[in-house]
Amino acid sequence: MIRLLARLRRLFYSWLRVRTLGASVLAIDDDGKVLLVRHNYGPDVWLFPGGAVKRKESFKTAALREVGEELGVKLRADGTCELFGLYLLRRGNWQDYLALYVLRGWDLTPTSSWEIDRSGCFDLDALPPNTAQSIRRRLLEWEAKAPLSDEW
């Protein structure tokens, strides 16, 4: 049911030609693994954690809020959250503008969220088979193995 509602929302936004703002996090743990999530809605793929930017909220604040709410991730005092890139994601008439932040130096206090089906930290060379192609491309860009793109 949640997946159906998510699909209907995308169709409605596309019909209205809505533009949305989002923030995602490429979180690298102390062992060099990347944190990925699988949502209870949308396609059954692994993604970076993230979500919508609220009114009067910066992209960075939204990124940190989303990983905190969805997963219980907290940036340590010695941690960093740096902008990696700004991207355009096109879905029909719907355009989503995404800011991607690289998060290092964080702690995880597991929490439950209705949005998240599963989460895990994965070696960059051993990602789950159903990791979204856009996530694989962003990781190659981050590793400087592919040119930077401005489209998600």
Protein architecture, described:
- The structure is a single chain.
- The protein is α+β, with helices and mostly antiparallel strands and 152 residues long.
- It has one domain: Nucleoside Triphosphate Pyrophosphohydrolase, CATH 3.90.79.10.
- Helix content is 25%, strand content 41%.
- It has helices at 2-16, 59-71, 133-142, and strands spanning 19-28, 34-39, 46-47, 50-52, 73-91, 94-108, 116-122.
- Strand 2 (34-39) and strand 3 (46-47) form a beta hairpin.
- The longest helix is centred in the first third of the chain and has 15 residues, at 2-16.
- It is globular, with a radius of gyration of 15 Å.
- 22% of the residues are buried.
Summed up, the domain count is: 1
What would the CATH topology be? Nucleoside Triphosphate Pyrophosphohydrolase
Q: What structural category arises from helix and sheet content?
A: alpha+beta
- State the helical fraction: 25-40%
Q: Roughly how many Å is the radius of gyration? A: 15 Å
Name the beta content range.
Answer: 35-45%
Q: Tell me about the biggest sheet?
A: 4 strands, mixed
Annotation, overall tally of beta strands: 7
CATH superfamily: Nucleoside Triphosphate Pyrophosphohydrolase
Order of helices and strands: HEEEEHEEEH
Describe the strand arrangement of the main beta sheet, using strand numbers: 4-1-6-5
Overall mean pLDDT: 90
Would you identify the CATH architecture?
Alpha-Beta Complex
Unreliably modeled segments: none
H/I helix tally: 3
Large-scale geometry: globular
| CATH class type | Alpha Beta
The end-to-end distance, rounded to whole angstroms, is 27 Å
